[in-house]
Design a protein that fits this description.
By secondary structure, the protein is of the alpha+beta class. The protein is built from six helices and four strands. The chain has a four-stranded mixed sheet with strand order 2-1-3-4. The two termini are 15 Å apart.
């Protein structure tokens, strides 16, 4: 299965990750995070597979996060409530996300990609 690359095309970090993937001949299935937002079920599975806390899936520098004052909500809400928030608006989700059969990478770090995807 080709890795799933979840991204927002206008995001500079996503463009850097896409370029890295292309330069390293890693063929992916690309998915626009706003047009095809991850479902609660997908997010729950990816969070478990990533080994990260659900809070790490929030785009804390994004306008939607800031405008809705989610900083305090994220600290106190249940996992299910947080996943529902993420599933409700793709712009809340940290990106890019790369999903393979056995790993989930959130955000972009060229060294991290090299270590995990090659």
């Amino acid at each position: 299965m080709k890795p799933l690359f979840i991204q927002y095309p206008k995001c500079g970090t996503c463009r850097k990750a896409a370029k890295w993937l292309s330069n390293n001949n890693i063929d992916v299935t690309s998915r626009h995070i706003v047009e095809n937002n991850p479902t609660a079920e997908e997010l729950s599975e990816w969070i478990d597979k990533s080994g990260l806390h659900v809070q790490k899936f929030f785009n804390t520098s994004g306008q939607v996060y800031k405008q809705n004052n989610l900083k305090d909500v994220v600290k106190t809400a249940s996992r299910e409530e947080l996943i529902d928030l993420l599933a409700g608006n793709g712009m809340l989700v940290k990106r890019p996300i790369v999903v393979t059969d056995d790993l989930v990478l959130v955000g972009f770090n060229g060294d991290g990609y090299s270590d995990r995807l090659k």
